[in-house]
Amino acid sequence: MPSLDFEVEKQSFRDYYNGNHGLLDGAKSSFITLVNSLIRASSDIALSKIEGRVKDRDECIKKFSEKYKASLEANAQEYRILDHITDLIGVRVVCLYEDDIEKIKDLLSVHFEVIDITDKIAQIENTENSFGYKGLHLDLKLNEKRKELPEYSQFVDLGFEVQVRTIIQDSWSVLDHKIKYKKSIPINLKRRINSLAALFEVADREFREIRNATEESIKAEDIPQEQITRESDQIEAGEAPPRFKPSSLNAFSFLKIAHHFFNEFDFEARKVDEFTEEVVSLKPDISRGKFNFYIRENISKVKRYKEFFEESNQNEKFNPYAVIRHCLYLGDKEIFAKLLPGQSAETFEVWLADNG
Fold first, then answer.
1. Contact at 8 Å (CB) between 134 and 172?
2. Which CATH architecture has domain 6-189?
3. 201-240, pLDDT tens digit by residue?
4. Is the pLDDT of residue 332 over 80?
5. Alpha-helical segments (H) within 131-268
6. Sheet with strand 112-119: strands edge to edge
7. pLDDT in tens, 294-307
8. How far is Cα 246 from Cα 240, in angstroms, rounded to an integer?
9. How is residue 12 annotated by DSSP?
10. Positive or negative, the Cα torsion across 335, 340, 346, 351?
């Protein structure tokens, strides 16, 4: 029963915590798994990590004492400490981009009962000279539909808090907790902390803008393959129209062309970046049309060599990057000789001599 006796309520909370820690830890793991699966099922949300914890028992009592005790006792309002600790079970969702925070909030609001929402982003942005991390806090409980599922039967009465932050906000929160005496410090130190916080805000915004610009660049290269083919034909035949400026090869046009020839292969962004850089370093003026031409004109012969190679070297695979390397080498052996290091070029030349 609730009371106004802090010592009694403190012991009552300790008894509850000690007796139910296993249940709380199981709920934490279950909620992490559920939140993770829900968000990752939404393919347009990029996550950094999802983690959780059961709040330390004495930290809970300290939080209650600092935040609620005085007000409740001043109003002679009986209490149970447990009723005021909404983050006893906590889940932290760290995403990559600012605009994903709202998407995650909307997604979780559909699948859980929302008890409360605390928007620390708005709180910080609307307060001058305020320090602290940004983020969105959601107090949630299982909704009626999930309460009926047997795997959640033990947790139907348990609420939990979800903190949603970007990876930049999460980094700032770690640093923010290491900065001492933020309130009563000289003005020059406050300015420096504000400057640091502003840099993190700029980083968050720029990270999102770079993503948007990258997506726009990918869309710009999403042109019909027929157009790239025409560019290849015009460049090779020397029939480019007046003032025609070939589009330089970059990671986005490489991906467009590579997907055309190898539509079932998953081209990892990092490898695309590295390979495109390697090709451009050897031929800085290479255009997407010329790159397409090299592959188109030589891929049939290289695929025949691929069959020979894999039959002779059963433990090695000739992936699309290897095919492209050999196509470029055939297109211009002098420029692209470095794409086939060591024995690779010699083995290829021997096969060419025998197979024309």
1. yes
2. 2-Layer Sandwich (3.30)
3. 899 999 999 999 988 887 877 778 788 788 787 766 666 5
4. yes
5. 144-147, 167-176, 187-220, 225-237, 251-261
6. 47-54, 89-95, 159-166, 136-142, 112-119
7. 999 999 999 999 99
8. 9
9. H
10. negative
Rounded-to-integer distance, Cα 79 and Cα 81, Å: 6
Q: Is the pLDDT of residue 105 over 80?
A: yes
Q: Which residues contact 116 (CB under 8 A, 6 or more apart)?
A: 86, 138, 139
Assign 285 to helix, strand or coil: coil
**Considering the entire predicted model, what is its pTM?**
0.71
Angle between helices 320-331 and 343-355 (to 10 degrees): 70
For residues 186-198, average pLDDT: 85
pLDDT at 131: 47
Sign of CA dihedral 195, 200, 201, 202: positive
Residue identified by tokens 């020397």 is: 238
Strands (DSSP E) contained in the chain are 47-54, 89-95, 112-119, 136-142, 159-166
Q: What is the pLDDT of residues 122-160, one digit of tens each?
A: 555 555 444 455 689 999 999 999 999 999 999 999 999
**In this structure, are residues 295 and 261 in contact, taking their beta carbons and an 8 Å threshold?**
yes
Helix/strand/coil (H, E, C) string of 149-166?
CHHHHHHCCCEEEEEEEE
**Domain-wise residue ranges, the chain:** 6-189, 221-355
Secondary structure of residue 348 in the 3-state scheme: helix
326's tokens: 């050999």
- 139: part of which helix (H) or strand (E)? strand 136-142
Pairing of strands 159-166, 89-95: parallel
65, 7 contact by CB (below 8 A) = no
- Residue given tokens 């990876």 in the structure block: 167
Angstrom distance (rounded) from CA 198 to CA 192 = 10
Closest CA to 292 of 251, 245, 337, 256: 256
Give the three-class secondary structure for 91: strand
